[in-house]
């Protein structure tokens, strides 16, 4: 304080007023305040630069992380697509195998049905042929029985008429393939007695004709 008073006294002696002294003090104070503000500003600017650098670094890290995530997503998408394609291919193969087995089963059943139908058709044809053969045999047996009946009746009539007819005269020729009623041989023609109309082959006709002829 003594130094300040001495300074003020010296300034008064030199003609410097108190307002001038206060102005210089104010100027010093303002300079100090300005310097302090500048220092604070510099500190803030350095802090801001540091924060900007940190933000930039964080942004770079975030961008890098985002790129890595996107790359990982692309890899995952490719893997998912590959897995989906493999699954679709497997499902297609399984579907094709299932359709093939169903087709084979259908063909087997169809073949079995066709074989069964063919077997039934052959059985029906065999039964029809057997029935037809039996019918023909029965018809033939009935025809043969009827023929034997007629033959026996004819032979009986011929036998009865043999003693009433001398079988003389001219025996007419009856053309056409037929059985001899005596020896049953097949002949191209037979001879008919003019009296009793018995039919006989030339060989058997000799036995019927009278000895005087």
UniProtKB/TrEMBL annotation:
Stretches with biased composition (Polar residues): 12-21
Segments carrying the region annotation (Disordered) are 1-45, 133-154
Bias category Low complexity: which stretches? Answer: 133-143
Q: Which residue windows does the record flag with biased composition (Basic and acidic residues)? A: 26-45
What protein am I looking at? Answer: Uncharacterized protein
